[in-house]
Sequence to fold (203 residues):
Amino acid sequence: MKKGLLIVVSGPAGSGKGTVNSHLLLTDDFRFSVSATTRAPRPGERDGINYFYISREEFEKKIENGEMLEHNYYCDNYYGTPREAVERVLAEGKNIILEIDVNGAMQVKKKYPDAVLIMLLPPTFSIQEERLRGRATEDEETIQKRLAQTKAEVPHFAEYDYIVYNYDGCAEKAAGDILAIVRAEQLSASRNPNTADLYFEKI
Fold:
């Protein structure tokens, strides 16, 4: 059985990561990585579904023991990706999607060099701003923080393997672009080093 691919999808607020990834998860070939956090569950959230909710002490111990594939500290709480859960899915031959920011993506790439890094973007910065304002779920200060974060993160696109654009009403197409990337990676020569042995195995 071939190992699955570790796929990192990063993108600014308003890029539609959740919607695009939901299309990929409709197939049996993909799994979604559940992050761990030290923040308390919000109403309606479930442990193991939205996040793995653990104590600060436990999280820091996992960092110390190398059990986190990546982690960040944000608003007085830790967030990160448990390594064991990811490696278990990959060993089962399934592809796993990590929806994380640029900082986390760079950590993953160092520890897992053959991870596939994809940056998902709205068509333009102005369209991103329109989407954020159109959601009407955040105040102006929060919107400005998100836009500032975009200006800091998007220039790192060159450190990613692929860029995918999510045009308005085209989330399914963006998911199709990611699926095409995954299929191409699965067929790459570097990921199939035993081709000759398999080809001549009956001789």
Q: What stands out?
A: The helical segments are 17-24, 56-64, 83-91, 102-111, 125-135, 140-153, 171-186, 195-199. Residues 171-186 form the longest helix (16 residues). The longest strand covers residues 68-74.
